[in-house]
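Quick one - first record:
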Amino acid sequence: MRFSNTLGLMPPLVSPLTSMSGTVLLWVLLAPFLAAQTPNGARQDTALEPGIPVTDPLVKAKCGTCHAPDERGNLDRISWVRTTPEGWQEAIKKMILEKHLELTPLEARSIVQYLSSRHGLAPEEAKPVMYYPERRVHDEIGAANDYPLTACAKCHAAARPLSWRRSADEWKRLADEHFAQYKVARNETAMAAVRKAGPLHTPEWTAWNARSQASNLTGRWLVTAHLPGHGRYFGEIQVERGATPDEFNTRATLHSINDGSTLIRTGQILLFGGYAWRGRSHGLAPSNSASSSAHPDDPSHDAREVMWISPDQNTGEGRWFWGQYQEFGFDVALQRAAPGITLLAVDRLSLKVGAQTTSLRIIGENLPTDVNAGELSFGPGITVRRVISSTSREVVAEVDVSATAPPGKRDITLRGAVLQGALAVYDRVDYLKVTPESSLAAFGDPTYVRGYQQFEAIGYQRGPDGKAHTADDLELGPMDASWSMQIFYAVDASGNDKIGNVSPAGLLTPAPRSPGGNFDIWVVATALHESNQNGKPLVAKGYVVVTIPAYTFDGRRYVRDLERWIEEGTW
């Protein structure tokens, strides 16, 4: 049995891996737990940097034989590090594989639960690196040539060390073990950066550790979500207590803003440390619908859920994802249902200046059923002509946009409730941007299924600086577009079929069988309704490398994992 299954609800991580040159990577951050332990538990830095005592009987019984205890209740190495549920899961996995630690699945889950809570990250520490367990491709370095963790990011995501907190002595030991075991050169710039970014004791952790971490997710939550290629959703999640205080059962009802369809998903989650939501869910597809296996982007597909719950346990955000490379997923936001008016969404993301008699649907909770035009505001330059209808769940209004309305984001307000930045007013669409701008997809083979990529064409108006692709540009939301693909260096489209195709909704589907090589392609979006100054449709491109699913180098076989290659069998 794979250890990743023994925790039941925990999503898989970027795995221990090796680079294309054969250097062992990623799991080196767990090397302190694999090294031989000192027989008396003595440490050089205990007088200067107190450890975190281990109080859980199971952890002491299972870990204390190798990680020697001291008189303060500290366990060697363990008491001087903190990390996420995924970090502790991976550490225990290595103990099982390398040190032959024997645990039942329930024992393993219990240990991860305790360590994530008492030796974990504070919510404020975990949030900046949530993209890592959410399995998002994230540009950690960008164009910065002086990024201090460049040395780390050459081998694994910089989020890997940033997901750990260690004493100064533990960071030094880690660097020494890199050098000794993997011949990784000492990099003082990187070590100074991680010591500064990841000290063992922080104000955030001290405050979080003093707070109650009781799990109280039960009740009704309001949901907004976005699934690329399918649009936006709203709805609710009912959360009920499970078999243990940290287990919960969920039932989500999501309504598509685009087409009005309804999706029901049920699932189970574990809550670690009072804020780390980790679970699985699946959709209850209508009996007459096609199997989700025939449609890899089907919203009812089985998914893993990774969410960050706010310290007050009233809001949450995260991702529900699936696919061979976790390439599909809902971006999800939660808020607890409350007695007052709550505005959730509006059915349009942008309005053009001069637009007349445009219908807008405002979606929410506990909306008044007697709304009049004077109570509803869309900001300067937008006049509410009349309220067409109002129910407790939605208000439909007819609005005019002044020809002189200033471009920019607008809040929507209704009787004191505010939906911030919900609507963009613009006078032109200056350019499109294909998202993601650069990405990977993968051919299939008899062992590995294809890796897809979903694209959207987002419209923008240049901001006050008059320059395109700068921070002050106004995002207008997805634009209707036709989709095509171009193979680099190809003289025509005759060879496209051996690479794949792009659907009308922007889904790139690679060929089911690998042609034996990687291909660089452009995925091209051509606007259906927006033109440039010359009257030609706006066009944007996204760069994609469609890769083979596996290859052999220097006697080792490698497969794709998210945005990098890993050695087969090491996850």
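second record:
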Amino acid sequence: MRSPVLRFGLRAFGYWLLVFTASACRPADQVAAARLQVPGSPDASADTSTDAPEKDAAGGEILRSGAITLRVSPGDPHRAELLDLAADLDRSLRSMAARLPYSGDPKIEIAVEPDYAAEARAHGAVGAAVAGRSTELALVFDPADRDAYRFAVARRWVARSGLPPLPPGIADGAALWLAEGWYGRSAAEWLAPLARAGAFPSGAELLAEERPEDGSALLSTPVAAAWVARRPGSTLAEKLGGGLPGAAALDAQLAAMAAEAGKNRSVGGGAAVGSAGSGAGGEGRFLRGVSFAMLNSVDGGYHAPSVDREYARLAELGADAVSLMPFAFQRDAHAPGLAFLDDHPSSETDAGLVHAARRAHAQGFAVLWKPHLWVRHGWPGEIEMRDEASWRQWWSGYRRYVLHHAFLAAWARAEIFCVGVELDRTAIGPERESAWRELIAAVRVLYPGAVTYAANWDRAGEVPFWDALDFVGVDAYYPLAATEQATDAELDLGAKEVVGRLARLAQRARRPLLLTEVGFPARRAAWREPNAEAGDLDEQDQLRAYRALFAALGRRPWLAGVFVWKSFSDESGAGRRSTRADFRFLGRRAEAAVRAYFALGTARSIPPALTAPRSKGRP
């Protein structure tokens, strides 16, 4: 069993347990320029941008187009694209104006920050577009994220509109009804896949005065926008000014929408959004991966510039894949209630994860998207509810969490998605098998790539749903020997026994096997309890354990790849703890063993016995 102590490192219990603030992103879709006159701004047909540089007191450039002002950092390389963005947002504002209606000052000032770390320092949040401190909005420019900027502008206009205060879920829907685009599609186009995945929100979720800790604006916003679109009237004032239905009435309306949308099979799921792309782990490619943990800091997280430096280091090591690991928090292993940890700038935000995936692809890496649960005073393998009502509540939150990340992983074009990590007591036995099969089928509606589950090493053979997945996933913390004084020969023998055990598992499951985690801590006799970090620092024993296991593994035809546990998004920050007997291997003797194993190359082939058809679950 996994030790509940330090394998994940110290995660601050002071995380802000707030919920997702959506940051939509997709390739640019031109919104028709409506010939609407917004009070206080020039005619839409006029070109109000200028090539003459206008500077602010700090030396940054000011770019204007109609009602939009962009304040740009000195030396920003995207000036021409930002001028186009300002004009695009101004056109969007004009299109929105008649549908509010709005007669106040239309001007919006937006700070353009050079990167997400700068955005977090200046404005206290990480996102494609966030509420600003010195300006109304702040953004980090990426050509793929124009819809995020339109949505943020629309959200500000809804707040200014003079409508009665709206619950955040309804306000998000109203803003998307104005902005129109959401991760590559209109809200209406998202209804069918969300309905088939069982991902519609409840009426209570949309009407909540505060965002639920386990809510997903990513999933709920297009449904809310489609609901707004069906309301009578042609403006938001007409649609929402007369009040909102109660939760029960809204539930009935959402159920009718889901039933109607679920019949529509003409609109696919994640395959139309992104592409798994590279056939990761498929015929001919062995994944040489590293578990890429986020350092929980503003300047060293997934969103930070340090990611490029660390990826370059991993590429030089010989890696060609990384796993990215968001977290949700569960306070009690035996009570339902998850909190998404995606809103604080020092946690794994959605925008930070997408940024880390984009930078990984720019480096030529494949991405394993691997959502984890962080359990207070415990570990995920201990999660077990006390009664069926609690199980239903737990599954509702966990399902939403997984589908949220399946949606996001599809957008980020991750090659592999992991539906769960070491959830032994939820995954083993017939009582919960149907819930897992339904979740896997729902993930496949939203996500087009390969899907796995990361089983704990000692229970992997008991997982009953490998046939529904593309890979057998194992977090492989197998002991290699029982004694502290084990010789190299004894370690080699133990490693061969482990490899034989893995080979038999792959053969029984008729699936290629992926070591979703494999590692040894830098402590004395690391081979005895590889899942535990506590102990005396010993780099040589860490090296010996890695050498023995990698020598036995080689490039087996049933082995799709490995993800070595672990490195950090900012090793310079993590290195301050280098005297601890933790799992870090970069800069230690074990780095040589990982480098040598990766140098064996990527060639592999899959025997026909490991390519059995996948069973189909019911979403």
